[in-house]
Amino acid sequence: MIIIKQIERERKSQGYALLMAIIIMGIFILISFYIADFSFREGRVDRSLRDAQIALSAQNSGVECAMRHDRRQSSEFNSSSGDITCNGNSGVRYTETFNNVYEFILLTGDGACAVVRVDKRGSGRETVVTSRGYNICPNDASGNPLDPNPRRIEQATEVKYTVRQEPLKDVVIAVDTSSSMLCPNARPIDGGCTQSDRNYPIAAQTCNDNSTNRQICDDYENREVTHNGTTKKGTAIRDMKEEVKSLIDQLDSFGIIDEDSVKLSLVEFGQNNRIMIPLDDNVSQMKMAVDDLRARGNTSLQGGIILGADVLVEHPETVCTISDCGRRGGVDKVMIIVSDGLPTYDACVSNNCKRVVFMDSGDNRCSLYDCLGGQSNCSEVDTVANSGTPGETLTRRGQIRCGTDSTESQNHAKISATEAKTSPNDIDIYALVVGGDNPEDNSTFMENDIVSEAENLYYLTNFTGLANTLFEIIVGEGAVWQPI
Questions:
Q1: Residue 471: CB partners within 8 Å, gap ≥ 6?
Q2: Are 245 and 235 in contact (CB under 8 A)?
Q3: Greater confidence, 137 or 348?
Q4: 169-483: what fold?
Q5: Which residues contact residue 372 at a Cβ distance below 8 angstroms, ignoring those fewer than 6 apart?
Q6: What distances in angstroms separate CA 147 from CA 44, 137, 150, 468, one per listed residue?
Q7: pLDDT band at 484 (very low <50, low <70, confident <90, very high)
Q8: For residue range 353-362, what is the model confidence (pLDDT) as tens digits?
Q9: What pLDDT score was predicted for residue 277?
Q10: Nearest to residue 176, comparing CAs of 344, 411, 416, 406?
Q11: Could you identify which of 105, 236, 252, 346 might form a hypothetical disulfide with 403, taking C-beta atoms 3.0 to 4.6 angstroms apart as the criterion?
Q12: Residue-wise pLDDT tens digits, 194-241
């Protein structure tokens, strides 16, 4: 009897152990299933997010493609069908599905695409772009439907904007590169920029000779400077260069720099008056020319105006001989002067001075150098004798008038500006006065003697915001497009 009871107790104990083992095992199985299900769901979420991002990227690419080709001077959506270039693909075909309604499919890679509709309304002045981006394209490049796919995600957007056609423009930006540009990016200054501060550690004309020299001069332009007791990093010329490059990027992002829209030229006036780059639509070349600007010497505004006119208007004695400086006929001619001070001297200051025009054989730039040297790496292509008499008024357009003080230099700049503004040259001259030691005097001089009309004068306390002001001048308010 005792033995039987003992056996029953052992069986009950084993049964409890087995039950607990089954329960624990079940819990572990449930946890494993939960983890597996969570991981699976997380994986699906991650994949969905990734697919949604791909669809969004395709949608944005479709909008950018449509707007770039519509916002040109003449919209490319103007026929029953045609090819455009987007995303590196030169064979993107659009077709007119309804009156002034165009559609195309942009393949963006890895099976993704954007189905884009361009609806031009009101005689083309208003455009509505609808772009539907897909991670898995519902159509092939010809528009034929593909099989349904449960993973297909659509991201859609609609953009509306107005288009105003502006005349074509050849634009010269003439920038002041006198030594004061090595001062702080704001003035009047309080003694924080001495005469010795206005010189690079090495000769300015050697700044761009090699990478070592370039770094020395770049570092000096980016040095800490003091203005009104406050120390900041960066000089006026550094900030001006950054703003001009920002302008170039802005114009390029809107598709404005183009043979069919706006072409830019860069001219410097300072100790040396040079055409840094003739009229061009090559963005990288333009930005390289901006980087080559260096500050030195006095302010020879006359030289900047003369070179700007030489770029924009054909003339028997024009300086630029490289493909006519890239100028085009039948377009608006605009010169924008950016300066921080009044003219202080003219390029010719000695009795044996000559106007010498050189073509730089190294980088195909045409340049006008003053009588202070710097021609060793160039080959002479034209020399015009000049008696060098201070204050001499010469009748030949482009001839440097010699002057030795600010009063003479201002008068000579006025004469050159008058020649440029009036027929047959008809150049529309703007001026941006930025800071400077005598901002009121400089503004008055520019308004009365240089710009084509008073509305063409702008004043900025420093170079910050220069890019936006230049953009407004070149494009005009709503000239190309604006959201509505």
A1: 247, 250, 251
A2: no
A3: 137
A4: Rossmann fold (3.40.50)
A5: 271, 272, 297
A6: 21, 10, 10, 49
A7: very low
A8: 333 333 333 3
A9: 83
A10: 344
A11: 346
A12: 778 889 999 888 998 899 999 999 999 998 876 666 677 788 899 999
Amino acid at 434: V
Q: Give the residue carrying structure tokens 């440097």.
A: 400
Sequence-ordered list of residues with C-beta below 8 angstroms from that of 212, at least 6 positions apart, any chain: none
What the block records as the tokens of 248 is: 């170039």
The domains of the chain are located at 50-162, 169-483
Tokens of 464: 């910050």
